[in-house]
Amino acid sequence: MAENILSKAVYLPQGEVPLRVIRIDNHHPMPQAHTHEFGELVIITHGQATHQVDSRRYRIRQGDVFVIHEGTPHAYLKPEALGLVNLLFDWPSLGLPEADLRMLPGYQALFEIEPRVRQRHHLRHRLRLSPLELEELLTPVARLERELQVRGPGYRFAALGHWMEIALHLSRAYGRQPLTGAAPKVGGLSRALGYMESHLGSPQSVESLAALAGMSPASFFRAFNEVLGSPPIRHLTRLRIDRAKRLLCDPRARIGDISEAVGFEDSNYFARQFRRFTGMSPRQWREFATSGS
Questions:
Q1: What is the dihedral of CA 239, 242, 246, 252, to 10 degrees?
Q2: Which residue spans of the chain are classified as CATH 1.10.10.60?
């Protein structure tokens, strides 16, 4: 089936805040699959429909919230008084201080794990908000929408603040939700990813992460590799290097201290791994990252 591709240049043009709110109060059938060059957070405000992701179909209704990753084909079939809000976003371009957000299992589940699992498997589980929770969520959504429309003084700062409030609200809501059916895999991998992010400076092993996920080491290794696209320890190393890249932007920080802070006791091994992932030494990366400051 042919696909429409929604371009980032059109929907999130360069130079603008990489956020957009699209509200559809009466969604018409959209049988032709489409993809985007950005992420999409979907909030079902009323009604119901069938949502097709690749070749899999799911019934969605009021209160459902889910994320569609860049490049994922999807379509809306048989809508019945369907209303939704689409929040288009480009995480890498937001430049936000994510702080401890990525350490929340709910964040990992909603924004990282569930969209990947749903694309590969028939996962019916999704975040479903109560009417009260939905009403609470739509308040910062409306504020974000207004800031992006009016573009008053400081609107970029305000828009990013509202987006962070929305992401945190949903991450916490997902963390409170019981997981059923095939969703325990989502919960287990999300707990492991949250732990990885929050303990980068501590020793971690496949065995300890598997225990945290409630899986055997073999099952955890297989599930992690399938969903994330790389083995657990390689993914952990990439997270550590990404954290080191941010820390290296501070010219006052010693490279040896940064190495230890992200879990490398041997600074020479840290340098080799850093070059493996970035093509530069830590010192070269620092010079490159700070050259424009």
A1: 90
A2: 233-293
Report helix, strand or coil for 55: coil
Q: Where are the beta strands (DSSP E) in 90-246?
A: 127-128
Q: Global pTM?
A: 0.83
Within the chain, which residue ranges are assigned CATH 2.60.120.280? 4-95+126-178
Q: Considering the domain 233-293 in this protein, what is its CATH number?
A: 1.10.10.60
pLDDT mean values, one per 10 residues, the chain (293 residues): 79 93 93 91 96 88 94 93 96 77 87 80 74 96 97 95 95 77 73 91 94 94 91 95 92 94 93 95 91 65
Contacts of 112 (CB under 8 A, 6+ apart): 190, 193
CATH number of 4-95+126-178: 2.60.120.280
Residues 6 or more apart whose Cβ sits within 8 Å of residue 71: 35, 36, 37
Q: Whose CA is closest to 49, among 18, 24, 12, 16?
A: 24
CB 111, CB 166: distance < 8 Å: no
129: Cβ contacts below 8 Å, ≥ 6 apart: 63, 64, 65, 137, 173
- What's residue 126's pLDDT? 77
CA distance 28 to 15: 32
